[in-house]
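Review form for a predicted model. The reviewer records the input and the model, then writes brief findings.
Reviewer: anonymous (R2)
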Amino acid sequence: MPLYSVVKPKTIPEQVFEQLRDLIFRGQLKPGEQLLPERELARTMGVSRPTVRAAINKLVDRGLLEHRQGQGTFVRAPEPGQANNPLVAMMGGAEASLVELLEVRLGLECNAATMAARRATDEDVRLLETALNNMREQFADGSLAFEEDTHFHMCLAYATKNPVQIQIMKNFYDLLHFGIKENLAHLYESPANIEAVLAQHEKVLKSIRHHDTHAAFEAMQQHIAFVIDFFANQPHPLMK
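Model under review:
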């Protein structure tokens, strides 16, 4: 058997899968939103229907899409502990608290904010602004806005232009979504906390818009530290 094998480029279904997954992670395709029919999606993306079908099935297996009988394919909100999530599998069933999750995010996202401030394009800033505006609207309507909050942090990851950071956050997505949902459910008990969270996100966005790396690091650090301090002395659920 030869020691080396031929390196194969990404297949077209893999490229379609990644494009659709990125749209979901950035919040451009939202939970509950219906995907275009296969025929129309194939025509729009310039690929065959079997290619689209293969990509969609992979997203269904990943838990990001779901088929509804007689209705079509819809974006699905992620759930913690999905067996096919590489990060969850790596944890081997170990439990972690929200504070422990936040401690990991503190390292990952402070560095991400710094890189994003250095490299973010106008389009990255626009996507962050959209996510933050959607957060404000959802909070104003009395909702938790955890989907929009998750999208903000994922848009930040993409703005780093660092493939390692982006890949880590893609695998972290399920836990990020769960953690933010639980965080906001507790923080929402005090309206002042929600105002603080919005102000913290605005500070992060402003620093990235102005490409201020030092301010971006500090703004993200203050945001996550605020949530850690809130939970430090409270009982909180475990992720399994």
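Findings: The chain has two domains: 12-75, 86-239.
Further findings: The chain has a mean pLDDT of 86.
Recommendation: see findings above.
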